[in-house]
Amino acid sequence: MSNRLTSVAIVVALAAGLPSAHSETLLVERVKQEQGAAVPARGMTMGQVEQRFGAPPNKLQPAGGDAPQHPVINRWVYDRFTVYFERDRVINTVLNRASPNEIGPKGSVSSQ
Q1: Could you write out the DSSP letters of every residue in 86-105?
Q2: Has residue 5 got a pLDDT over 60?
Q3: Assigned domain for 45 exists
Q4: Which one-letter DSSP state was computed for residue 55?
């Protein structure tokens, strides 16, 4: 019984010295919560994305396009997500970090 009580006391002491897990949000948790949210689907055209979601607040500088095997990749940054296009078709949509406390990939910051 005293071993169990000692173990509990150690766990409580360790937890008191660690940052609260409740103050941070994991990106994976938010993605699960927002899976039903509307985001551009793979294969949509730029025109379809703009018609459904409006003009993006930020269009990042295109990348690639220097060779046939390196197609032009465009990135449109909306408030909640970033859309990646190969030429004019959606290839992926990634949720942006919701807050500085969210643990996950860091978003790119660019201004034009």
Answers
A1: ETTEEEEEEEPPSSTTEESP
A2: no
A3: yes
A4: S
What end-to-end distance do the CA atoms of the chain give, in Å? Answer: 65
Q: What is the CA radius of gyration of the chain?
A: 21
Domain that holds residue 79: 24-103
| Pairwise CA distance, residues 51 & 100, whole Å | 30
Q: Which of the pair, 12 or 38, is modelled with greater confidence? A: 38
Question: Contact, 69 vs 75, CB < 8 A?
Answer: no
pTM (predicted TM-score): 0.60
CATH assignment at residue 97: 3.30.1450
Is 85 within 8 Å of 43 (Cβ atoms)? no
Does the residue 49 lie in any domain? Answer: yes
**Tens-digit pLDDT profile for residues 23-69:** 555 666 666 655 666 899 999 999 999 999 999 999 999 999 899 89
pLDDT of residue 101: 73
Separation of alpha carbons 96 and 107, rounded Å:
6
